[in-house]
Amino acid sequence: ERIVDIIKALRSFSYSGSGKSVEINVVEAMNSAIKLTSTLHRYKNKVILETADNNICFSGNAGQIQQVLVNLLTNAIYATPEGKCIYLRVSKNEEHVVLVIEDEGIGMPKSVLDKIFTPFFTTKPPGEGTGLGMSISMTIIEEHGGTIDISSNPGKGTCVTVSFPLA
Q1: pLDDT the model gives residue 13
Q2: Spatial distance between the Cα atoms of 89 and 99, rounded to a whole number of angstroms
Q3: What pLDDT digit, counting tens, does each position of 106-143 carry?
């Protein structure tokens, strides 16, 4: 099963860019990611979505963007102890949509942060992670003309900021 999962992820990684571009409502995409991960956080963490505008959009491949959001939220959930919060923030400036996923989790030391986008690097126990989620997410973000920035402090949590050009 693990090999099948890795091959599926590799296919997605190597064939990225396929699929058509549509207008994506970021708040709807974030709400969808929250629903898709609800079994992971329902009784463990409080996930809070903050936005001043419910109609922030950009163009992209909806399936790929959903994959990125679910991956980032899943990572935050796994890193956040029970009873702590995960904050999702959506905003925009003149040129970009900005998505922030910030957790009150365990954080990462610089040695882990430096390898976070390396394919097959994982901090999860054997059998629980492929180590492909962040490298695939970075590729998808870059293919959409976006950027990703991660800051983390051990014991204090992690903040992931992703930006995409406005539609």
Answers
A1: 46
A2: 6
A3: 999 999 999 999 888 888 777 777 788 899 999 999 99
Residues, the chain, total? 167
Identify the three-state secondary structure at position 149.
Answer: strand
pLDDT digits (tens, 9 = 90+) for 65-116: 999 999 999 999 999 999 999 999 999 999 999 999 999 999 999 999 999 9
pLDDT of res. 120: 85
For tokens 């992670």, the residue is 129
Geometric angle at alpha carbon 123, from 117 and 147, rounded to 5°: 25
What is the number of other CB atoms lying within 10 angstroms of the CB of residue 118? 12
Give the list of residues 6+ apart from residue 155 with CB closer than 8 angstroms, or none.
106, 107
DSSP-assigned letters across all residues of 85-151: EEEEEEEE-SSEEEEEEEE-S----HHHHTTTTSTT---SPTTS--S-HHHHHHHHHHHTT-EEEEE
How far apart are the C-alpha atoms of 93 and 95, rounded to whole Å?
Answer: 6
Contacts of 116 (CB under 8 A, 6+ apart): 108, 134, 150
Token pair, residue 144, equals 């959409």
